[in-house]
Amino acid sequence: MGTARTGFPAPLSVGVPQKRDGQVKDNRHRRILSNLSKEEARSVSDLATLCGVSGMTLRRDLDELEGAGLVRRVWGGAVLSDRNDPGFLQRATKQVDAKRKLADLVANMLTPRQSLFIDAGSTAAGIAKAIATRAQTENLPLTITTCSIPVASHLVAARGIFLYQLGGEVDLVTQSVFGSPADMQIANMHFDVFVFSGSGLDAENGVTNASSSAVELKRFAMSRAKETWCVADSTKWGRTSFYRICSLDEVTRLFMDVRPSDLPPAIGGDRLIVCEG
């Protein structure tokens, strides 16, 4: 199996009588995968229009891509399979400056003796690093629970930090744990603040995510916290992933690097905290 220019493994063309037809289909498959990597989820009709084929042909394409483990069929459309998630390491190279500023902003909002749950992801890892840096020069006793291996690695030697790493099945893509064991541990905990992000934020659809397993853990941790802090760079605004985490009304504080022009007025005031400079 080769490697397509999009970075996705090229799907096998089975039962195609002519080489040219096989090339056309492979090009169509690459276009579908590339579009799903940008849009999170698309309907069959949208993808068929994009590729210039009938809905029946597009459904056959999705069946083949699903058989190859590249996409997952959902009602009326498809999303990338979890193995095609860009992953923690790749996400960590995007929006680096914005994420650093957001991390510093969140870390400086914390007060001694708070209890936090810090979620998984590159944004969360940056926040953990900023907390560890602040703890080097200040007396900042905190109790921090996390499902993220990178978050824990930044905090494990931080002065004054009591760290609790959840156990459970490890998702190698997100470098975090999930599943029933992690949920059972959270059930016995209480947090002052739940710090998280998502794949997309939208005024109507709220905060969304591409992974169903990650969403369940986020919701559970949120239910155990007094406050919910959502941290997101501006590229996530206006995007909607397949699984809904929560509405924006459920977010106590929203941290962003830029104020969206179409942000609902109800999210303004003290609830919205924007990086300066």
Strand content: 15-25%
Largest sheet: 7 strands, parallel
How much helical structure, as a percent, in the residues? Answer: 25-40%
Structural class: alpha/beta
Spatial gap, N to C terminus: 47 Å
Under CATH, the topology of the largest domain can be stated as Rossmann fold
- Rg, Å, rounded: 21 Å
Under CATH at level 1, the class of the largest domain stands as: Alpha Beta
Tell me the CATH architecture of the largest domain: 3-Layer(aba) Sandwich
Order of strands across the biggest sheet? Answer: 6-5-4-9-12-14-15
Secondary-structure element string: HEHHEEHHEHEHEEEHEEEHEEEE
Task: Please describe what this structure looks like.
The protein is globular and about 65 Å long. α5 crosses α6. A hairpin with a 4-residue loop joins β7 and β8. Residues 1-19 have low confidence and may be disordered. It has a 7-stranded parallel β-sheet. A 3-stranded antiparallel β-sheet has the order 1-3-2. Helix content is 37%, strand content 23%. With 277 residues, it is of the alpha/beta class.
Summarize the structure.
By secondary structure, the chain is an alpha/beta fold.
Secondary-structure map:
Layout: H1 19-39, E1 41-43, H2 44-51, H3 55-67, E2 71-74, E3 77-80, H4 87-91, H5 96-109, E4 115-118, H6 122-137, E5 142-146, H7 149-155, E6 161-165, E7 169-171, E8 176-178, H8 180-186, E9 191-196, E10 200-202, E11 206-209, H9 212-223, E12 225-232, E13 243-246, E14 253-256, E15 272-274
Parallel strand pairs: 4-5, 4-9, 5-6, 9-12, 12-14, 14-15
Antiparallel strand pairs: 1-3, 2-3, 7-8, 10-11, 11-13
